Amino acid sequence: MMSNLPILSLTLFIPILGAIVIMCLPANRHKAIKYVAAVSTLFSLLLSLWSMLNYDLTIGGMQFVERIPWIADLGVNYALGVDGISLPLLLLTNLIGFSAVYASWQTAARVKEFFALLLILITGVMGTFVTTDLFIFFLFYEVVVIPIYLLVIMFGSSKRVTKEYAGMKLTIYLLIGSAFLLVGLIALFIKAQGILGFPSMDIATLAQVDYPAGFQIFAYALMVFGFGTLLSMFPFHAWSPDGYAGAPTAVSMIHAGVLKKIGGYGLIRIGLFILPVGAKFIAPVIAVLAIGNVVYAAFICLSQKDLKYIVGYSSVSHMGYVLIGIAALNIISINGAVMMMFAHGVMAALFFAMIGNLYEKSHTRNVSDFGGLAHQMPRLAFGFMLAGLASLGLPGTVNFIGEFTIFVGAFGVYRVISIIAITGIILTAVYILRTLGDILFGPRLEKWDHLQDLKGPEMVPLVVLGSAILIGGILPFTVMDFINSGVGQLLSHIASIQMGGIF
Amino acid sequence: MNYSLLAPEMLIALTGLLLLISGLILAGRGQRLVGIISVVLLVAVLLLVVVRFSESAVFFNGVYQVDTFANFFKALFLIAAVLVMLSAGKYTQRFEQKQSEFYALMVFATLGMMVMAAAGDLITIYIGLELMTVSFYILTAYLLNDEASSEAGLKYLILGAISSAILLFGMSLLFALSGTTVISEIAGQVSRQPALIAGIILMIVGFGFKIAAVPFHMWAPDIYQGAPIPVTTYLAVGSKAAAFAALLRIFMIALPPGQFNWSLVLAILAAITIIVGNLIALNQTNVKRMLAYSSIAQAGYILAGLVAANAYGLKGVLFYAMLYVFCNTGAFAVATAVETDTGSTDRVAFNALGKRSPMLAAIMTVCLLSLAGIPPMAGFAGKFYLFSGAIQAGYLWLAFIGLLMSMISVYYYLLVAKAMYIGESDREDIIDIKLPARFALWVCLLATILIGVYPAPLSNLAQTAIQMFL
């Protein structure tokens, strides 16, 4: 019975429906608004879990496909479908979206605007992962930018930089990146139309076309610019720490957790899939820039005092691993890159949820203000420890699987770069353990005795994201089987197009 | 010849005269009726145009043409006029005893635009143009006791007259070389020679004034800021679209791009217009003036479609002109409401609009984002067509400039959003909006989102309208 329902459309539009309901509710009914947000994200979460359980791994490829002709003269279809690469990211979006609603449970001012924008944001992010049409992809890609801006300026916090500055910086960086991306996409579309003889925006159709090598390099370079900015690739990463610091907790969670991953997803699903020759040519550049991410950002992390900046820069640093995975261009490294995106997503979201909770109660994020919090807030300390240990790639957490796979895949291709990048793991251990030690352990500070530990709705992010970290770490095949099937089919498609001459 | 196809123009002319007379009869409080009458009649004509959209005929040996291209633009002007009149609402009280003439002049300006879109002959285009501009000279200076408005009117008169003269000079050169003023006959009669190039350049300059392309844009900001807001709105959406309609017909039919290589000139013009318009708009603190500069930039985007001169580009011109009506009118309508309420259009006047009137703030945000080309608003689909056309025609650099600058434009549009959502204001009262204005605002909002999410119907209409150029 359920197979006849448009599962993906439902997953996608239930949050929008929730947003519309919220807009119609009176502004002072805070409880009702929050419940609507929670229920609609829960629905999407359950539906994405359902589609993961019902995805047929033996067949692979795009499943739960929906297709409605949309704009004939541009060859645009409202086309949805998920494969092994997009499913884990769809699940990730909904895990974080659901947790983000609970992480913002204490919002008291302008509740209506907050949750309506948050739900629109979640839909936008999901849309990029479930569509198989380039136009629709870009539509969702840009939809997310404006709700984020409004959320940051309305609900953000001004510490080192003002929230207005942070919001605008983030928005302009991402939009300028997207301008380059859009030029690349339109050029791709026009080029394919010239070769095919008919307009098409279908990603799979575009991937069938044999583009000239020069064009591939040009178009892929534009995509690296656009997607790289979103993925906070060095040197286009400056928006990320400021943006996270200024943003409210839920936005930091979604932004660091999934939104960034659209960049990596786009590079694989669109860049690599459609333009393999370009990808091959530019891969070494990406690998070198990735060192900038991993090492440079890690060193900056060492000198940060604000918790959000530490996690912000560490997320820039960890995106370097993803970039190396993508640059190494083999099935193991790309498996690792996708796994790392999932792993970093749940970890960063949990981290930001914990920081947000602590900041809400203590009104400070300075590491030096804290000490011995494990005495007063054991559950929060557990959340911090779990996120921190995942961040440094402790075996048993899902992050270990991601990092390990990336380096296994990349080592044969970029030996020196891999060795330099692996030092990033050590640096991560240094700054994470030092920070956790400073804020959680040591003698009990009396000034924090009034802080309440996590309870009720505040526990939801910890439970949901924490279990994802552990399940993914102990039973990695629950996620890795999907990724492997998706990446494998993608690469074998490229190989069949290129007659084995490239890879 | 089926003269009934000229009914829209005739009815509009009659409407204008009727409004002038009714202004005499319905003196005093009856003036409010004039607005209602004009809206009802314009809607009736709009329906007539829509119903007979695909019927076409050529009148007087090609001097006047009723075709889908003309009908598309006629519908556009009528929609714009109706929306402007609806949203003007309370603002017209500032015109005191002269309300009926305001509506009459708006109707005459509409007639001029309709003639421009349907004219198949240079002289007829010029007559339509003059009918439109002369109406606007008066409308711009309509706030008699307001210095800015009078100054705007005078400036527009002088600069408009000069640009009309330049345009006419260009047309006369074209006539001298071809021996005909009928557009469809010119192409076969002329060849590339210096005098023709001079004629083309003079016409580009003349139309450049009308669409406010840089470097012929100097008049626009002062006049947009000084004129009464409803007039500014109509000037920005209507007269610009009319100039584009005439420009398309002349340049695509009389001077086909394959034969006369004008696209590079226009491409440079478009690029400068986009860059300068956006950069100056960045540091404007008055929303009306900011919208004036942004509308200069918008003209540059539309020009990129004409540069491309292929199916996507030309379709983009029509598509964009239509969506521009909705989002620009929406933005100006909010500005009208704010000016009526606070007496100012400075950005600070928009402070706390998100609290005072969530609907106005939401509509302003949506309309501005559409102007910036952020999906899922209509502006994105429009720019996608325009710049797909440009890239297909080999103008990759123009697409680069256009898309990059439109992302930069998000900055100044978001400053307005910022003022509305986190600006502080000592006023907390809700802004009162009359029902007609509310209706117009909703139309703008829904059209902007619907066209953006599902552009196919409008793009199909645009496709049929540009078929004759391909």
Please name the two chains that share the biggest interface, counting residues whose Cβ lies under 8 Å from a Cβ on the partner chain. Answer: A-B, 34 and 38 residues
Unreliable spans of chain A are none
What is the typical, i.e. mean, pLDDT of chain B?
A: 90
Query: Any idea what the radius of gyration of chain B is?
Result: 21 Å
Side by side, the strands of the main sheet of chain A go 1-2
Question: What is the count of β-strands of chain B?
Answer: 2
How are strands sequenced across the largest beta sheet of chain B? 1-2
Structural class of chain A: mainly alpha
Distance between the termini of chain B: 26 Å
Give the biggest beta sheet of chain B.
2 strands, antiparallel
> Tally the helices of chain A: what do you get?
20
Which series of helices and strands of chain A comes N to C?
A: HHEEHHHHHHHHHHHHHHHHHH
Oligomer: heterodimer
> Which percent bin holds the helix content of chain A?
over 70%
Strand content of chain B: under 5%
C-alpha-based Rg of chain A, rounded: 21 Å
Helical/strand content category of chain B = mainly alpha
Describe the structure.
The complex is a heterodimer of chains A (503) and B (470). With 503 residues, chain A is mainly alpha-helical. Chain A has helices spanning 7-24, 30-54, 86-103, 111-130, 134-143, 145-155, 163-196, 203-208, 213-230, 239-246, 249-274, 276-302, 307-328, 331-362, 373-376, 378-391, 398-411, 415-440, 459-474, 477-498, and strands at residues 63-71, 76-82. Chain A has a two-stranded antiparallel ribbon with strand order 1-2. In chain A, strand 1 and strand 2 (76-82) form a beta hairpin. Chain A starts with 6 loop residues before the first helix and ends in a 5-residue tail after the last helix. By secondary structure, chain B is mostly helical. Chain B has a domain at 262-470. Chain B contains 19 helices and two strands. A two-stranded antiparallel ribbon of chain B has the order 1-2. In chain B, helix 3 runs parallel beside helix 13. The mean pLDDT of chain B is 90. The A-B interface holds A 70-74, 113, 135, 138-140, 142-143, 145-146, 149-150, 153-154, 164, 168, 171-172, 175-176, 178-180, 182-183, 186-187, 189-190, 193 and B 311-312, 315, 354, 365, 369, 374-376, 380-381, 384-385, 387-388, 391-392, 396, 399-400, 403-404, 406-408, 410-411, 414, 417-418, 421-422, 454-456, 459-460, 463.
